[in-house]
């Protein structure tokens, strides 16, 4: 039996993750690979073709109004100090995760582009020091997770 599984590897070039009762290791960052997956007794349960994709975490200190990045397979982390606005890129087909953290003492605002919404609003604020919000796209608008 062969399955195609899309996995996202975050952070390291070598990752271990579980599928069912077996554990496999992915040591390459991109490309299609075939892995043999044993069950909990060590016998071959299935062979699977795995497509590995590296997701990068990028951290940006922010002091002025900023338009968030939109490179694919990137988790953007913004550490915002000051009364500043972060504008999220288009949510259309965006698969990135955006984290905005207020590291200062002023209100941080997160806006959208075009007529997109964040949980039904055109913007959200982070009024408290060390308050943090994560944003993902539902392919049309932004959701706070």
Question: How would you characterize this protein structure?
Answer:
- It is a single chain.
- The chain is mainly beta and 145 residues long.
- It has strands spanning 4-10, 15-19, 22-26, 31-38, 44-62, 66-67, 74-80, 85-87, 97-102, 108-111, 123-126, 132-137, 142-144.
- Strands 1, 4, 5, 7, 9, 12 and 13 form a 7-stranded mixed sheet that branches.
- A hairpin with a 2-residue loop joins strand 2 and strand 3 (22-26).
- Residues 1-33 have low confidence and may be disordered.
- How far is it from the N-terminal to the C-terminal residue, by CA? 35 Å
Shape: globular
The total beta strand count reads 13
Radius of gyration (CA) equals 19 Å
Chain-averaged pLDDT: 77
Please give the largest β-sheet: 7 strands, mixed
- Which stretches are low in confidence, meaning pLDDT under 50 for 5 or more residues running? 1-33
Counting H and I runs of at least 4 residues, what is the number of helices? 0
Written as H for each helix and E for each strand, in order along the chain, the element string is EEEEEEEEEEEEE
What structural class do helix, strand and pairing data support? Answer: mainly beta
Q: List the domain count as a whole number.
A: 2
Helix percentage: under 10%
Beta-strand level of the residues, as a percent range?
A: over 45%
Quick overview:
This protein has 145 residues and is mainly β.
Annotation keywords:
single chain; 145 residues; mainly beta; 2 domains; seven-stranded mixed sheet; four-stranded mixed sheet; 13 strands; 0% helix; disordered N terminus
């Amino acid at each position: 039996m062969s399955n195609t599984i899309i996995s996202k590897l975050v952070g390291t070039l070598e990752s271990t993750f579980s599928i069912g009762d077996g554990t496999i290791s992915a040591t390459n960052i991109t490309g299609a690979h075939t892995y043999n997956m044993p069950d909990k007794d060590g016998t071959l349960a299935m062979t699977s073709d795995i497509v590995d994709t590296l997701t990068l975490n990028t951290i940006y200190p922010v002091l002025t109004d900023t338009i968030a990045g939109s490179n694919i397979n990137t988790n953007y982390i913004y550490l915002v100090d000051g009364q500043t606005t972060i504008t999220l890129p288009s949510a259309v087909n965006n698969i990135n995760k955006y984290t905005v953290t207020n590291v200062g003492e002023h209100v941080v605002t997160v806006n959208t582009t075009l007529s997109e919404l964040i949980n039904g609003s055109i913007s959200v604020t982070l009024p408290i020091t060390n308050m943090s919000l994560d944003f993902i796209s539902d392919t049309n608008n932004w959701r706070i997770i």
